[in-house]
């Protein structure tokens, strides 16, 4: 996906997700047109049922993007994972941590 979005201003790829930003609505629509043209040239299709358009604010992967500005860490990311209580029952401990090591 990074190859598809190379040199496209305001369009970012993360795994199979695409984020399109713009400083104005017209700029946003223009970038969407450029993106859809590029996707078609690579024979990719957009799933419009899973797509969202026209958001002024986006929270994604722990960052908040507003308009065409760069992202800032979200409040939740700044606070961290928080304090979790220590498990008191063995069943509450993750099976990954309780598993016995295997020998090869």
TrEMBL record:
Cite the SUPFAM superfamilies for this sequence: DNA/RNA polymerases
* Biological process, per Gene Ontology: DNA biosynthetic process
Reading the lineage from the top rank, the first entry is Eukaryota
Q: Where is this region: Disordered?
A: 69-104
Which protein is depicted?
Answer: Reverse transcriptase domain-containing protein
Species, as recorded: Petrolisthes manimaculis
């Amino acid at each position: 996906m990074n190859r598809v979005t190379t040199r496209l201003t305001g369009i970012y790829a993360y795994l199979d997700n695409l984020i399109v930003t713009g400083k104005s609505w017209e700029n946003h629509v223009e970038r969407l047109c450029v993106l859809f043209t590029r996707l078609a040239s690579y024979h990719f299709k957009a799933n419009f049922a899973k797509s969202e358009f026209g958001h002024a604010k986006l929270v994604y992967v722990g960052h908040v993007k507003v308009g065409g500005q760069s992202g800032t860490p979200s409040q939740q990311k700044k606070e961290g994972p928080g304090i979790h209580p220590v498990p008191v029952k063995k069943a509450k401990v993750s099976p990954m941590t309780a598993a016995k090591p295997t020998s090869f």
